[in-house]
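*** Protein under study ***
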Amino acid sequence: MKLHQITAVRQLTDSTFVLQLERKELPFHTGQFVILRRPGTIEQREYTVYSGAKDNFLEVLVREVTEGKVTPRLKKMQPGDQLEVDGPFGFFRFNPKMFPSQKFLFVATGTGISPFHSFVKTYPSLDYHLVHGVRFGEEAYEHHDFNKQNITLCTTGDKTGNFMGRVTQFLATQKLESDTQCFLCGNSEMIQEAFDILTEKGIEVQNIYTEVYF
């Protein structure tokens, strides 16, 4: 692991924040993750890279788990502090040139939006539709970085989104072209339900890519 200095912290909600660190020319593919650890400790966590592949910094999106051993301490860190970084790792990689079709569907719950933020920051001209499921509208993490017309915010705890209900309920109402490339990132229950809905709608299994977050 190498030491990377924290250069900025953005608080998005009471429990969710972005840590920006020195990149130090760390190479990664969009969709990959890194492992973070506080110096002198053994506890570590995996975080998908939130920043774009062309950015000269490294960002991760973190949600505090109050009873956890890592995230409450990460929340207290400030610019100038250091973290040990290892990686990158993972196969949830994305490059538009990899796919015969250039129509993309991104489905996320909570902080599962991280890889898609990296996708769009790296490839801003993508033809995509992002479906993001959260409880409250305030958890629409930095949606301003996406094209507004390309996002559907699904909320279950208030009516501030575009659709009140779960992402799977929204997907069930949609017509999809069979060659759409579909990427799912979030909790395992959502991924399984969304996978079943997409295949029932005619999406080929080989066109569905998944990353379980929690």
Summary: The mean pLDDT is 95.
